[in-house]
Amino acid sequence: MTRTTRAQGRVRRRVALAAAVAAPAALAAPAIAAAAPAIAADAVCVRPVQDPASGRLTAPPLTITGSGFTPGAPVELRRGTRTFGGVADASGAFTAQLSVLDLLTATRAPRATPFGVVATDQAGLGVSNEIRLKAASLSFSASPRRANPSARTTFKLSGFEPDRVVYAHYRFRGRTRADVAVGRAGNPCGILTTRRKQIPVRAPARGLWTVQFDHNRRFSPRATPRIRATIRVSQVLRRR
Asked: Which residues, at least 6 apart from 212, have a Cβ–Cβ distance to it below 8 Å?
């Protein structure tokens, strides 16, 4: 009687143990089934990098990270008509860098160019989510292009550092004649549109003026990012 009871007790403990071991496996199954390819980027808007000495612009690489891909499988990244390759590691993750130089040099107009990136698992697991990003060139425009120096002109800039104040430094014959805060660059592409006097100097001298836009309160030839433009002030003879 006692032996039977102990035997039954052992059977019950084994059954209970088996049920406890099986339960986590059953709970883990939905998490495995829910895994899907996914990608993310290290930036929302890509802006050029400028060399302080030469002023030369370069395009920083856009880093894309992915997860949920087939381990060891090749991954194809697509940006418009351009494709880039990568390989998933043992955990199904990858890191790849994409060039956006063509987007940053496609136009001189101050603007943010939208684009998308998507990744495909070449082992057949599927296509990832599409991430929507932007690229902003370091550019400047003025409208109208010809106006009285005291006339209000619309300046538009792009590619500056987001949420930072932009200053305009007006220079004539090697000397700074005015340092003016023109506004704060927008987020995330550093775009700013402002309307103000073309030259905020009383009775500006005739000749070639230079205006530099940057983030410094005072003029510095090595400020970055920076844009320089010229304004020619000439005498206009009016007919009586």
From this structure: 168, 169, 171, 219, 223, 226, 227, 228
Which token pair is 93? 């993750």
144 and 131 inside one domain: no
Question: Strands, DSSP E only, in the chain?
Answer: 38-41, 45-46, 49-50, 57-58, 62-67, 74-79, 82-87, 94-98, 112-121, 126-127, 131-136, 139-143, 152-158, 165-172, 175-184, 192-197, 207-214, 227-233
CA-nearest of 43, 160, 173 to 100 is 43
Tens digit of pLDDT for each residue in 108-151?
899 999 999 999 999 989 999 999 999 999 999 999 988 899 99
Higher-scoring residue by pLDDT: 3, 109: 109
Structural domain of residue 74, as residue ranges?
Answer: 38-136
Q: Are 66 and 75 in contact (CB under 8 A)?
A: yes
Q: What is the pTM of this model?
A: 0.79
pLDDT in tens, 70-113: 999 999 999 999 999 999 999 999 999 999 999 998 878 999 99
Q: How far, in Å, CA of 185 to CA of 195, rounded? A: 14
How far the first Cα of the chain sits from its last, in Å, is: 131
- Look up residue 88 and give its DSSP letter: -
Query: Which tokens in the block code for residue 60?
Result: 């920083």
Q: What letter does residue 70 receive in the DSSP assignment?
A: P
- Of the residues 110, 136, 162, which one is the last residue of a structural domain? 136
